[in-house]
Design goal:
This protein is an alpha+beta fold. The chain has 10 helices and 19 strands. The strands form 6 sheets. A 6-stranded mixed beta sheet has the order 1-2-6-3-7-18, with helices on one face. Helix 2 (40-50) crosses helix 4 (135-155). The chain is elongated, with a radius of gyration of 25 Å. It starts with 27 loop residues before the first helix and ends in a 5-residue tail after the last helix.
Length: 417
């Protein structure tokens, strides 16, 4: 394999390939253009995307920009829109293995614009960093997907398998009409993915120091504890739901739900909200509302956790109504080919040793894993995501593109020497 440098301005020479192996829809002019790419290509595309205020679920034609660019190197685009959400499935090739880059063009709201040091949708270079909403989460990753594909295809126009991009505008919102709906479409026609790289920001201290090879499940409960309102001076005529729930709450917080495993920490139970009472100091409340969440490992199941919570509440004689919502099942890619390839590409480009982790919140990987044999998340630093003055290091941008290119080369290059 040709060494991949930590600078995506490296000259590449696809014209060494014999003409009979060239894919017809790649013109000599395009190859020449890709040969002359500089490291600014990824940066400029990231800026173009950041400048579009695509607050979820508004795409602001980000996907159109990607489709137009990738069409030039042989990608077919399929728009899969549901409700207000725009999704696009871009694919080059028809054979396996399928390597898919996945991400989202939507961003979270900016918060108070006046607190930003520069306008959030005017990408700004300052102090060695690129500032703007979506810089880290995750328009830089998407830009690097594209430039990595451009360089890889220029050097390997007759590569093995297929390359795909799955992009949605509904990841930061309810995530009901985004990736999950695209996965349903692909699954229905038996269009599966062998290797998926989700561009979520995963780095902690240095680019490439952490990749996610799984995520915990998320199970939420909305509990209403029923009592009887009354005067605080006559407690025998009322039922205080705070008091009746207290012993159950203690047991729920002390319960060991599982011990975790090699890849996952133990399942956690956390109360996020407790509300009860009228605001008056002399009224026993008639009900208590409790919101809680499990972040659960593969050692537990949704059904098992529900059963155990109900058993504890029933044990303590709590009168209640409980509504459940599961936003994602836990998933895991065991250390194997994709994690090995990603680690090798990172080591070559960034010179760091990569930790596999399942920490953090949920991502669209929870949906894609249903049709993907192996899946990881790999992107820039997550230190400023969703914050005022969100940013990425400028020198990480070309490196990330080269890492993605290195993964493609290791998985799909037609000949490794």
């Amino acid at each position: 394999m040709k060494p991949v440098m930590a600078n995506d301005s490296e000259h590449i020479n696809p014209t060494q390939r014999s003409s009979e192996n060239q894919i017809e829809n790649i013109s000599d002019g395009l190859i020449s253009q890709v040969n002359k790419m500089t490291e600014t290509q990824s940066l400029e595309l990231a800026k173009a995307l950041i400048s579009r205020p695509s607050v979820t679920p508004d795409d602001r034609d980000c996907q159109k920009l990607l489709a137009e660019r990738l069409h030039k190197i042989g990608f077919a685009a399929e728009e899969l829109h549901f409700g207000d959400t725009k999704n696009i499935w871009l694919r080059r090739g028809t054979k396996a293995p399928v390597v898919c880059f996945a991400g989202h063009t939507d961003v979270v709201p900016t918060g108070p614009v006046e607190k930003w040091d520069s306008p959030p949708f005017e990408p700004t270079e300052r102090d060695g960093r690129l500032y703007g909403r979506g810089a880290a989460d995750m328009k830089t990753s998407i830009a690097c997907f594209v430039t990595a594909c451009e360089r890889f295809i220029a050097e390997h126009p007759d590569h093995q398998g297929s390359i795909a991009l799955l992009i949605t505008s509904d990841e930061e919102g309810d995530a009901l009409d985004g990736t999950t709906k695209v996965v349903d479409v692909l699954k229905a026609r038996d269009e599966l993915i062998d290797y998926c790289i989700v561009g979520e920001p995963t780095a902690v201290d240095k680019l490439g120091d952490m990749i996610k090879n799984g995520r915990r499940g998320s199970l939420s409960g909305n509990l209403t504890v029923k009592g009887k309102q009354g005067h605080i001076a006559y407690p025998h005529l009322a039922i205080n739901p705070v008091h009746t729930f207290a012993p159950a709450l203690l047991e729920l917080t002390q319960e060991v739900w599982d011990e975790g495993n090699k890849y996952f920490p133990p399942t956690s139970f956390q109360i996020s909200n407790i509300n009860g009472g009228t605001g008056a100091t002399n009224v026993i409340p008639g009900e208590l509302n409790v919101k809680f969440n499990f972040r659960f490992s593969t050692e537990s199941t949704e059904a098992g956790l529900k059963q155990r919570v109900h058993a504890i509440l029933d044990k303590h004689g709590v009168q209640y109504d409980l509504q459940w919502s599961c936003s994602g099942q836990p998933f895991l890619t065991h250390a194997g080919k994709l994690t090995d390839v990603a680690r090798a590409a990172i080591a070559e480009t960034c010179g760091v040793e990569t930790e596999l982790s399942t920490t953090g919140g949920t991502s669209d990987g929870r949906f894609i894993k249903a049709i993907a044999k192996e899946l990881i998340e790999l992107g820039p630093s997550n230190a400023t995501i969703h914050q005022i003055n969100e940013n990425v290091r400028l020198d990480d941008i070309p490196k990330l593109s080269v890492v993605y290119e290195g993964i493609l080369a290791r998985l799909l290059a037609e000949k490794v020497v």
